[in-house]
């Protein structure tokens, strides 16, 4: 999030989708993708403006060799008209920036740099950001680190750590610095999340934090520098108030993102504009920041300089609406306001209105309204209308209506002049009223049938009916217009008026044509009786016959004539409504005998409810035949869509309320319907318990976790309910459960089960000293009995039963005696009680640790006198075991000296009983060198001529061998390969002394001793002097 002054506007133009720049990116020079990103920072000096070039001429020469067009706006595809328009306007504002001093000069260059970099920088995602939950242990570690740091007041001002941050206004944040190792772990852990977001391989760049914002902090809108911050994340760790992160995505929409602790905001940090522009109202808000770069990432910062237009320093002819403020950006008029953001919470949009970040969006959409007014025939756009360039015009029109009281007088006037419709349905009402007048002109009245449709498809009859229902909600002007036209508010009065009007018609042909026109749209099933007996009855007879034919077709297709009330034929005729009308007419004695007989011949159902009941009864019988019972689930639906489960439930309810006829109750009883659904459920579960008992041999069904049968029944839960309800369930059920040896108290049953296991353990091992690792259940149960006895919660009966099997109430006492017996066996085998601390018996008992523990208890006076007495009876060593071991080794050294005549023990020497005496001797020498051996031990060792420096002793021994050689041969000229009778390589040793003298490593003392025996230092000279002949 920290940016240099090189990138104040880096992201402003990156609002297109990924495919926007793909053709351009693939043709970039290879020098971009193969070079290494620069790490140099920009200095606010015009002499250092071109950090990659010597001067402007050098930059322009490089640009002429590049593929960039003169106007970089041309790089944006023409398919992105709206986006291209926004960028063009923004570039014009940058050109219009005034240059009054060196600082303005630098800012203007930076603005151009950010614009060009935004255009050439590739996109990795479609939207540019994503909110995701991170469930990693390292997040909790960071939160713990934050809590501890705040509690200890370890935060420091960020400015003291890295200097002032120019994009943060108001109160400066504080920092809890992270260690380098911690940062590396964060970047490594979160790398896969960032790669998944960016859909590319990444390299860690940096992690920093923890940044702790304080009251009134404001983070300006900004982007990050591409050389180090390409794909990033902000991980929210905690805070006492919500604080929205405002982000402009790659499609130009602005969002305000709210995060919960543990949420991570992933974003293309070098392209997506982001900030926290509302002052923070809480006391603290903390997060950590992670940044990555792609594995193949070119020198995009340098290319941004190359792409800047040639005439960047020229001043434009107008006023600029932009202001560069360090690394942040300000827009005249408040480009990023505090109202109407898209608010996100846990990835879910809760408000969909948004406000564009740049430009006057209202004027843009008003111009779109004017340009599309002709296309839609006015300003009353449907809500879902979106223009070709992406303007949501329908939604904008709706918003103007809703916010009319808050619109300025100037905007209201502009909308009125454009013919804007403030009431959405006003223009539609006027259009339908004109259709009503056309109807009156054609038919002479406004008695429109309910289903009348005009030639152009308008449902005028439905509109007329709606006006009657909405009479009180119509405006006074609308009611007056309808009444002037002769509108009939009472629908029944309209039917009467229609009859009178038809009787007054004189011209039969005209009447027939008019009637035919109206019949085609009337609800003839409803109004057929109104015309019986008049001269037009033949026409209605034809319509009845036509519907009767439709009824026969229905019977042929479905096998019955029980037409649902809402049934409509394929050609839109309401056959169900017509069938219902026939029943009503029969009930009121208004159906002719002829029609009654015809319907009877088709087996017409006069009582639809009875027929429907019989139909569902038949389906219930089929269910029993298929499944073997009548336990129909409540949500069960038959294959043909009938809700049989609901119907069965309704029968039970009707019987309970005494509204089900005796005849129906009898029919349902005969097929075995269970009226009490709970009783049926109990019986079903009892049968499952019987099956469980037959399979497992007992009725102790597990409850935690509950046992579930193969068909999904929670038998364990049901068994638990029976135990809990023992006092309220019937005696009959209790008796039936007892027959299965039902366990009413599972705790008692569990105790008896473990008691049996304890007896089996004693029979196998001869005692009841069960450890916790011998069968988790039994071991824990044994421990529980001891604890219950200690707390006086073990019943006398159980205590007596446990006592009867010699139960061990204090396992520690019994355990000590066992270890003591092991110690006696050790003494018998080894002759002492000096047990090494790592010693383990053949049967796996760690005896050495136990022995050391006795010494510790004795030291702390926490061992009983009785135990001390028993241990001392076997010469137990209470002192430090190391002292005892030293004395033992000293005795072995004395035996070695007695056998070998000296204390020069070889390092690898091991005694016959396995003691590494050579190592011990070496350890004594090392202890003396380091000054950590006692004077007493040094004295004892020196009494037996202990050799503290074996090298010195070895030299003296070889010197003695040389003296013997001189005495035997008369000189000290020892051949190099000569070995004495007792195995001393004297020739090699003599040669080593010559080499030591030559290298200056021979001490004066040793040189003098060798000189005293006429040591030959130069063999050739000595031979020449004595004229010896080489044999």
UniProtKB/TrEMBL annotation:
Signal peptide interval: 1-20
Superkingdom to which the source organism belongs: Eukaryota
Domain Helicase-associated: 360-420, 426-487, 543-602, 609-672, 679-742, 747-807, 812-876, 883-946, 953-1015
This protein's UniProt keywords: Signal
InterPro entries: Helicase_assoc (IPR005114)
Coiled coil: none
Transmembrane segments: none
Protein name: Helicase-associated domain-containing protein
The species this protein was found in: Triparma laevis f. longispina
Lineage, opening ranks: Eukaryota, Sar, Stramenopiles, Ochrophyta, Bolidophyceae
